[in-house]
Design goal:
two-stranded antiparallel sheet; single chain
């Protein structure tokens, strides 16, 4: 038998048959099969004997046609490979059972899980253990954000940059790996197992070549504070009681604090505790609403020196506690002076991230109301629903040119909108169409909506998406920059290859058919094809459409 195959070699078969013929009538097929240790017993030997015509060719393994495929390669790509790719790009889990449902819905075929798995494996699909990451961690925008931060920090002296982080260590923690000789067990004796080893938490900061004072929390400290680990309140206490006095001894201004995006790094609380400039890669200083930090830092110099002098003289409250509208009177006075002398120094900036976070918080609040059984008779949730829709409409309408990082964030926002409330699919679709940069992005929008929406509601939303695509007001910037021929071929791609003629009919009607340079004959063939569509909505739209050409081929309108 060939070691690389489950089939016997033709030469081996010939040797078996020759042995049988040479020892007739003293041996049987059963004896020969047992003698040569042939699987299948005498029936296999008999089958070889019946096929043998004296040549080795008659015993060679014949090619088998195999079982016919239920799906062709195009269907495999459409219903398996592309669907899995779409889920991977959206960082969503998917199982073969969901693909089976999609195949049954589209083709009415009952296909087994094993068959779908075989098709997937043939196309390079593998089942992998999931790696859980947040949306920001897996986005390409995150890498660009890190690179941007590094470039910014490289322009600042390392004596002005403070890096702060939290960590922990377990005493007598069991080693995770060890060398093991053949036949031996990978056991090591430890005082405590890893799960029960005493853990010590630490908050520390470094600036330049200095290590600033740190704080360590023992298991007893955590038990006293009734916490399992470091929380935001413990971090703020460290900043106010240890970090701030340490920073006051530094003679470099301004000082930048760099933190990671841990959930305990609450920006608003840190802004109250420190007057830093950089928190989680966001301006978060006491001067964050001014254009020029250096001017304000210089103007505040005498106050810093006065404060240090008072601390050396053990004066606890050198500035008193008098406030005006909740703001310290000195800060209020300096603010008025700056407004009268140099008003252009002040700047108010609302970033796209702030807008997204605000919208996301409103959606989360709406979701909380939906889950609250006590609000079943309350109309406030309906008011919130309408306000969110109005806010999203204003936000989407005001979008201009976006960079790659912003597109990543807005794409995540669109998916969040769709997941939280599918009745906002038209708004999510508008946003995604503004972000689209090629025809594959437009196709991905349809794939996403097909997965989230029922077939009836998907067709309803598809009509709205078609109106956005065919809008001349720039609802889809990618399409607007295409030439007439490119728009026509884009429509053909969706009609012939993606079977989505309803999606592109408004585009053809508003931006292709009414142009003088278009090929009239091709347009007539396409219209004739769509009039025979099984989609009744499309057929109705095409039958109601009046072509804008005269018999001589010129346009009724003056649109060229």
């Amino acid at each position: 038998m060939n070691n690389l195959s489950r089939y016997y070699d033709a030469s081996f078969k010939q040797r078996v048959i020759e042995y049988y013929l040479q020892n007739q009538p003293n041996v049987s097929f059963r004896f020969v099969a047992k003698f040569f240790h042939i699987h299948g017993d005498y029936a296999t030997v008999k089958r070889w004997f019946d096929r043998y015509d004296g040549t080795i060719l008659s015993l060679q393994q014949q090619m088998r046609s195999g079982r016919p495929q239920i799906l062709n390669q195009e269907e495999i790509d459409q219903f398996i490979t592309r669907v899995i790719c779409s889920h991977n790009r959206m960082s969503r889990s998917i199982k073969y059972s969901k693909i089976m449902d999609l195949i049954h819905q589209k083709t009415k075929l009952n296909i087994s899980t094993r068959t779908v798995q075989r098709y997937g494996k043939k196309n390079g699909v593998k089942s992998r253990k999931m790696i859980k990451r947040t949306a920001k961690e897996i986005s390409s925008a995150s890498s660009e954000s890190i690179a941007k931060l590094r470039r910014k920090l490289q322009r600042i002296s390392n004596k002005k940059i403070i890096f702060l982080d939290e960590t922990h260590i377990k005493i007598n923690e069991a080693p995770r790996t060890t060398l093991v000789a053949p036949g031996e067990n990978p056991y090591v004796i430890v005082t405590d197992s890893s799960s029960y080893a005493a853990r010590y938490d630490m908050i520390a900061a470094v600036v330049g070549d200095q290590i600033l004072p740190s704080i360590i929390y023992s298991p007893a400290d955590r038990k006293t504070k009734n916490v399992k680990g470091i929380n935001s309140n413990m971090l703020i206490d460290f900043m106010e009681n240890i970090l701030c006095p340490s920073i006051s001894t530094l003679d470099y201004c301004p000082i930048y604090l760099v933190l990671d995006k841990s959930h305990i790094h609450n920006i608003s609380k840190i802004k109250e505790a420190l007057g830093t400039l950089l928190v989680n890669n966001i301006d978060a200083s006491c001067f964050s609403n001014v254009k020029n930090h250096d001017i304000v830092q210089f103007s505040m110099g005498f106050i810093r020196w006065y404060y240090r002098l008072c601390r050396l003289l053990s004066i606890e409250k050198p500035f008193g506690e008098q406030t005006v509208d909740g703001i310290h009177y000195i800060a209020k006075m300096l603010h008025k002076i700056a407004q009268s002398i140099y008003p252009s120094i002040f700047l108010i900036v609302i970033s796209s991230n702030d807008i997204i976070n605000f919208i996301q918080s409103m959606i989360d609040y709406e979701k909380k109301l939906d889950l609250d059984q006590n609000n079943l008779d309350d109309q406030s949730d309906l008011l919130i629903y309408r306000r969110i829709n109005e806010l999203l409409d204003i936000f989407i309408s005001s979008l201009g040119e976006t960079d790659q990082e912003q597109r990543e964030y807005f794409h995540s926002l669109a998916l969040s909108i769709l997941k939280c409330q599918v009745t906002r699919a038209h708004l999510a679709g508008r946003l995604l169409m503004i972000l689209a940069q090629n025809k594959e992005d437009l196709e991905e929008i349809l794939i996403i909506f097909q997965q989230y929406l029922s077939p009836v509601y998907f067709e309803y939303i598809l009509v709205k998406l078609a109106s956005y695509l065919g809008d001349n007001n720039g609802s889809c910037p990618f399409v607007q920059q295409l030439s007439i021929d490119e728009k026509f071929h884009l429509a053909l791609w969706f009609i012939n290859e993606k079977d989505q003629p309803l999606f592109v009919f408004d585009l053809l009607k508003n931006q292709v058919f009414n142009k003088a340079s278009v090929d009239k004959q091709q347009c007539q063939v396409l219209l004739r094809q769509m009039r025979q569509s099984s989609n009744l909505i499309l057929r109705q739209q095409v039958l109601e459409y009046a072509i804008p050409w005269r018999p001589d081929g010129t346009l009724y309108a003056d649109d060229t």
